[in-house]
């Protein structure tokens, strides 16, 4: 032991020093410890020596600690500077990318401008060459016209021969016109004879198929079609009893719209020949009258097919007859006339007025002039969409009015000058109803009463026509009043009677067939062509012109001389056109110069863009150098970090050894 066990604790003092001679002081308790042997003395000296070394090492450690603190703060500041440089480097890289994108965009724009310039240059060059070719061709045409003018001037002595030849051709043409007129008159006469032998009112019967609702409800078909080809149709009612009716034509549920219209198409020719015609569909509600008359866009009805046939025949006759066709769509709703083509509802009440020679018209209605079949469907759909419809126990979409399509045809014969004005009524009658069955109430009841009243008035008119009564009650209903000029003795009529095959509608079917059978065969008398009275004055003027034809033929020589003068004026016109083309060429050249100037400007812009590109490349190079410098500094920073780490490790080792 050096100092034994020390119990008393004293404050920290400097390292123990040697006490009195032969003794020493304890470093911890400052106790005077006696040194009894040389070994102890030697040990005390070594302790004192090591204590001095420890003090020196401690001071050195403190210095190194201060240096480490300074190095650590330097490392932190260096890291902050490094982060700032990294952020700046990232911003510079983003700016470089943006500059590259802008540069690429400007390069593409420059390339497009160059391509557009080249394309425009080619187009202008082609246009100039084309104009040069046209100018050359016009020069040649001018030369030919000059030669023709000289030839005409030399051919004047032969004009007398030409006049004789023209007169011979005119006489031959007049003879051909006369023969054609005679043949047309014979054809019309034979056609009218055929129509009259069949009766002026013809009746066709059409039966719809059973609906899905009727089939699911267990209803059966009571219509017998065995004699349909001969125009016979039978109705089985009350067990085995069958009643047969005779019509001009019977259509089964398998017959399509085209077959139905095929038998009605001859009346279309009558309209174009100048006769008034009426085609209407009659039957109970829900029997398919609207489908027969209007159809659908994929399965056209009588209305559309009639107009299609009118335009087809008019096109075939366009060399001899000109036609003007207009369309009006009306409906008779609760004994009031409504214009279904009117764009806005009018408070003015539409009334029927009588025109000259027994014809009737409604002032104020819209007459849509149709030039071709493409305009027809839009007009028909407009009228159909405006029609009044409602729902009852029999039909969910029952028509509550009589829809009347009026086609007015004005014709002018180019051969003899005859003018006609005929009218074709295509009528979709509202369905007759039994009030007990439809259970109509309120507005529907009023509508049904007016419908039945107007249909009764139609039956009265037909009965009066059949009995050749001196008074025909046309004015009992707006429906019959409108059809007066198309149901009288000067017109032709066709009725489609629509029936239901269901045994649930057997009584209504019998009622419709009984009415239709009375209508069939009624002779209205010979139909009369409707002359357009407004054109009579024009016909007289044409007769006056025909008297002056001789004088006009004598003036043919003067016309030939005028033709020569016209040729000369045309030649002058060609010269003027040539001058205009030259002016246009000059204008195109000036435009080409402006295009060249714009190309030079674009080249300058390209050179400026190239300079900017070089500047951007230099900036990118400087940024790359700066990045290398930053990477070098970062490497130095890593080295200083490694030195600091080594110092820290040394301090830790000294602490472990107890030197600190």
From TrEMBL:
Keywords, alphabetical: ATP-binding, Coiled coil, Microtubule, Motor protein, Nucleotide-binding
One Gene Ontology cellular component annotation held by this UniProt entry: microtubule
Region (Disordered): 592-613
CDD domains: KISc_C_terminal
InterPro entries: Kinesin-like_fam, Kinesin_motor_CS, Kinesin_motor_dom, Kinesin_motor_dom_sf, P-loop_NTPase
Any one GO molecular function term: ATP binding
Coiled coil, from the record: 40-148
Biased composition (Polar residues): 597-610
GO BP, sorted A to Z: microtubule-based movement
Signal peptide location: none
Domain (Kinesin motor): residue spans on this chain: 200-522
Record: residues binding ATP: 283-290
UniProt superkingdom: Eukaryota
Family: Belongs to the TRAFAC class myosin-kinesin ATPase superfamily. Kinesin family. KIN-14 subfamily.
Protein name: Kinesin-like protein
Species per Swiss-Prot/TrEMBL record: Aegilops tauschii subsp. strangulata
């Amino acid at each position: 032991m050096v100092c034994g066990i020390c119990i008393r604790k004293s404050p920290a003092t400097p390292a123990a020093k040697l006490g009195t001679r032969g003794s020493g002081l304890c470093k911890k308790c400052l106790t005077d410890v006696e040194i009894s042997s040389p070994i102890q003395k030697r040990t005390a000296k070594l302790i004192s020596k090591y204590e001095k070394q420890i003090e020196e090492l401690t001071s050195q450690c403190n210095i190194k600690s201060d240096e480490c603190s300074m190095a650590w703060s330097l490392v932190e500041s260096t890291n902050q500077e490094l982060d700032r440089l990294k952020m700046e480097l990232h911003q510079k890289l983003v700016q470089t990318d943006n500059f590259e994108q802008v540069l690429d965009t400007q390069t593409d724009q420059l390339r497009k401008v160059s391509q557009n310039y080249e394309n425009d240059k080619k187009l202008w060059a082609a246009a100039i060459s084309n104009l040069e070719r046209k100018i050359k061709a016009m020069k040649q045409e001018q030369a030919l016209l000059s030669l023709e003018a000289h030839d005409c001037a030399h051919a004047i002595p032969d004009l007398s021969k030409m006049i004789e030849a023209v007169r011979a051709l005119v006489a031959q043409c007049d003879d051909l016109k006369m023969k054609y007129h005679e043949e047309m008159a014979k054809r019309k006469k034979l056609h009218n004879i055929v129509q009259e032998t069949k009766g002026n009112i013809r009746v066709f019967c059409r039966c719809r198929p059973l609906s899905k609702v009727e089939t699911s409800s267990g209803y059966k078909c009571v219509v017998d079609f065995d004699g349909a080809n001969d125009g016979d149709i039978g109705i089985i009612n009350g067990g085995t009893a069958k009643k047969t009716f005779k019509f001009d034509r019977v259509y089964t549920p398998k017959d399509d719209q085209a077959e139905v219209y095929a038998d009605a198409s001859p009346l279309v020719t009558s309209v174009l020949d100048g006769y008034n015609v009426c085609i209407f569909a009659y039957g109970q509600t829900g029997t398919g009258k609207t489908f027969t008359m209007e159809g659908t866009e994929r399965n056209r009805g009588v209305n559309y097919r009639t107009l299609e046939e009118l335009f087809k025949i008019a096109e075939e006759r366009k060399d001899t007859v000109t036609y003007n066709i207009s369309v009006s769509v009306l409906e008779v709703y609760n004994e009031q006339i409504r214009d279904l083509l009117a764009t806005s509802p009018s408070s003015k009440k539409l009334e029927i007025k009588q025109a000259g020679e027994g014809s009737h018209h409604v002032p104020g209605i819209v007459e849509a002039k149709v030039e071709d079949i493409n305009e027809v469907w839009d007009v028909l759909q407009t009228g159909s969409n405006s029609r009044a419809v409602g729902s009852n126990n029999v039909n969910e979409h029952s028509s509550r009015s009589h829809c009347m399509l009026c086609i007015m045809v004005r014709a002018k014969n180019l051969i003899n000058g005859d003018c006609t004005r005929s009218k074709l009524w295509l009528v979709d009658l509202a369905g007759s109803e039994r009030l007990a069955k439809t259970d109509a109430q309120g507005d529907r009841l009023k509508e049904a009463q007016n419908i039945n009243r107007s249909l009764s008035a139609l039956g009265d008119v037909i009965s009066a026509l059949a009995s050749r009564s001196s008074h025909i009650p046309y004015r009992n209903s707006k429906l019959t009043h409108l059809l007066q000029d198309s149901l009288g003795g000067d017109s032709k009529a066709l009725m489609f009677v629509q029936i239901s095959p269901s045994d649930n509608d057997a009584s209504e079917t019998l009622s419709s067939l009984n009415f239709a059978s009375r209508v069939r065969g009624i002779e209205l008398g010979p139909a009369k062509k409707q002359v357009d009275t407004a054109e009579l004055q024009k016909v007289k003027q044409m007769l006056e012109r025909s008297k002056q034809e001789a004088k006009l033929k004598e003036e043919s020589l003067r016309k030939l001389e005028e033709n020569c003068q016209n040729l000369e004026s045309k030649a002058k016109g060609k010269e003027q056109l040539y001058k205009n083309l030259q002016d246009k060429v000059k204008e195109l050249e000036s435009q080409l110069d402006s295009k060249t100037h714009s190309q030079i400007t674009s080249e300058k812009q390209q050179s400026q863009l190239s300079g900017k590109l070089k500047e951007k490349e230099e900036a990118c190079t400087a940024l790359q150098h700066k990045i290398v410098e930053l990477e070098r500094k970062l490497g130095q920073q890593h080295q200083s970090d490694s030195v600091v780490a080594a110092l820290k490790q040394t301090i830790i080792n000294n602490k472990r050894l107890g030197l600190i």
